[in-house]
Each structure stands twice: as structure tokens, then as C-alpha cells.
Amino acid sequence: MLASLDSNNYPHKVGLGEREARIACKLVARRHYNFGHGIGRSGDLLEAQPKAAGSTLLARLTNALILDLIRGIGLPSCAGCFLVPMCTGMTLTLCLQSLRKRRPGARYVLWSRIDQKSCFKAITATGLVPVVIPCLIKGESLNTNVDLFREKIKSLGVDSILCLYTTTSCFAPRNSDDIAEVSKLSKQWQIPHLVNNAYGLQAKEIVNQLECANRVGRIDYFVQSSDKNLLVPVGSAIVASFNESVLHDVASTYAGRASGSQSLDVLMTLLSLGRNGFRLLFDQRGENFNYLRENLRKFAEPRGEIVIDSRFNSISLAITLATLAGDQMKSITKLGSMLHMRGVSGARVIVPGQNKTIDGHEFLDFGSHRSNLQVPYLTVAAGIGITREEIDKFFDIFNKCWNQIFQTKNEKIMSLLETTIK
């Protein structure tokens, strides 16, 4: 019905423009329900498209339902949001570009370090200068260095800083940034605050942090991935704000018309699951996170390992690999490939000495969110949709891989001893 409102599907159409949504392949037309015009107009994602009343209605309905979901899961203060048909990293770039229009003289972005390439490249892609704020190390967990944020604001000057840039959802043992305290700095100094909330909508703790941060301070935009939170294919992100007036700045920064297929995916999924369906999935995810953490602790204790205490990370967990690695630090990386070959995806093995340079900026011990990693570890996460059956199967595979590596390690030691004796 919506597609029939687009001009390319009119029975009496006479198309004389350069873009008439003609689709050559029937399979492609069926895949997109004969939508072909996309959404928005050149240079504005939220503007109505005269040739495509149906696509425009679809996009606006999708945005309205996303906002209803966001408010319904614990963010009643959220004033507005819209879907951007680009990945999270590029959407963060779009937000930074819009902030740049508001603060043309500013060039620095104060960024709390998280070892994930796309959120850092979002800064460099705009030609801005990243100022990396290292995390505070408490035990083996990592926390936001709020005092260093404050020092950098004073030393660089308010007018030269484009925004404060924080992250909620991340790989353990890094905790969610203390966005409430950073938002206070943002409000105090009147500096914009951008939050990378990649997969944070599915975690009640993070949702509560966002609502609290808005109450005590300032957040201009918080950006989340649609695939990680809404269970749709990769390709779009959601820009949300507690101030509706600033959202149009981002929408009008987009260059060109946009794809409408991502809105279609999200709309169909929202209608399929409904608010109650998503709430149930979010609740189950939280329960399965606790189940994963408890079983990871049971796995770690008899093997002389620990689950790192990152209590402000409610999605990801990290288990040390010290006894397994021993003095063969580099060889432990094969654990990741062993797990992958047996069907386990998403688990990451982090070892000291893995340095990486991104757009001219060097990160020591990349992957660990710090520059002095001593103990290797494995991270796993309980994302939306995970089941207890998957968790149980993971531990079965993990145990077999662990025993295999340990056996190989002991055989090498015995062989070395025999050679020495001879």
C-alpha cells in the first residue's frame, strides 16, 4: 500500500526525470517491495520526497516507532530520533560534521580511549584532531578519567574544543564511560557532548545512565547501531537527542538522497516484535548475561584464572589467560582461531604487544584500551538474542580447546626437559 503511493508505481506514470526509480531486475523490485526513490531530498534526511509519498510516510513512521521504543525502555526524556542509512561510525562522523557547523573555530575532540577503529576514524574522517583521554586503571578494569577531561578543557580552551566524546557499550574489561560526570563538564563549560551508544539500548544499566546524564548535565547526541539493538541487517544507525531542535542539524548535513531499505527493515521488525517483544528480548539478554558471568567464574576458578571485575559493563566479560599462556604469550592467540573454527564467533583474545596505527595515531596494546597490558585475556559478550543453549555450547567448546592447548603446552615442557637431561 505504501509503495503504491510512490510515483514509480503509478499506473499512469510518465517519467521524464533523471531519477524515476526504474528497477531492471524483478527480484530486486520484489526484494524492495517496489520502493525505489529512497528517503529525504538532496541534503536533508528528514525532508519529504515529492515523488515518494509512500517512502516518506514509511520513514517517518519508522522514526516515530523507534522513538516510542526508546521512550518505552527507559528514556522518557528522549525528545526525538531518526534512522540514518549508514553504519554507526559514519553516523558519528555525520554528527561531528554537524557540530562543526555550530562551532567552526573548534578543532579538538576529547575522546575517552576505546580500542575500536570506527569510532576513532569518525574523528579523523572529519579532519578534526583527536585528543585521547586514557582510561583510569583500577585493578584490571578500566574507568573514565574525568579529571583528565577537566584538565584538557582548561589547557586547550573551551572555544578550541568541538565536543566531549564518550562511549557506553564496549569490550570488557573497559567499563562504560561515566557519562553522567562527563555530561556535567559538558554543561558547566557549554561544550557539546557526543555519546557512542553502539549497542547500549539493550542494557537497562546503560539506558538508566543516559537518562541520568541528561538530568544532571548535557548530551547533544547519542548514536546507536540498529543491527546490534534491533536485530536487522547491518547498514543503519539511530541518532537520538534530548533536544529535538539539534537533530535537524544532523539530518541537513547528510549529502544526497538516502536509501530507504534500512527503514523498511526496521519498520518490519518493529511491527513484528512490538514493544513487548523487544522488552522481553532485552530482559532475557540481561538474565543470560548473569548466567554467562556466573558460568565464566565457575570455569575460571579451578584453572587459576579470574573474571576481571568490570562491574559497570553489563554486556561484555573478560577472563584472564595467564596460566594458560605462561611464557608463551604469542601462542595463546591461537585460542581465538580454535574457537572460531568450532563455530564460536565474537570471542576475542587480547595479548600484550599488539600495537596498531590508525590514521597516524599509534595505540600501544591495541584491543585492551590501555598502553601497558600485562596479562592476556579473552572477551565474550551476551548480546540481544543470545540463548542459554549457545552459552552452554560455548563452554563445552571452550573447555575442549583449553584442555588441548594445555596438553600441547605440557608436552612441549616435557620434551624440553628430556632434551635438557640428555
Q: Which sequence of strands runs across the widest sheet? A: 1-9-8-7-6-2-3
What is the alpha-carbon Rg in Å? 24 Å
Number of strands: 14
Largest β sheet strand count, sense and barrel closure: 7 strands, mixed
Distance between the termini: 83 Å
Can you tell me the CATH topology of the largest domain? Aspartate Aminotransferase, domain 2
Percent of residues in β-strands: 5-15%
Question: What is the CATH domain class of the largest domain?
Answer: Alpha Beta
Shape: globular
Tally of helical segments: 13
Please identify, by name, the CATH architecture of the largest domain.
3-Layer(aba) Sandwich
Task: Name the structural class.
Answer: alpha/beta
Total domain modules: 2
Flag low-confidence runs.
Answer: none
Mean pLDDT: 93
Modified residues (N6-(pyridoxal phosphate)lysine): 228
EC number: 2.9.1.2
Enzyme class: transferase
Keywords: Cytoplasm, Protein biosynthesis, Pyridoxal phosphate, RNA-binding, Selenium, Transferase, tRNA-binding
Short summary:
The protein is α/β, with parallel strands linked by helices and 422 residues long. The chain folds into 2 domains: 37-274, Type I PLP-dependent aspartate aminotransferase-like (Major domain) (Aspartate Aminotransferase, domain 2), CATH 3.40.640; 276-421, Aspartate Aminotransferase, domain 1 (Alpha-Beta Complex), CATH 3.90.1150.
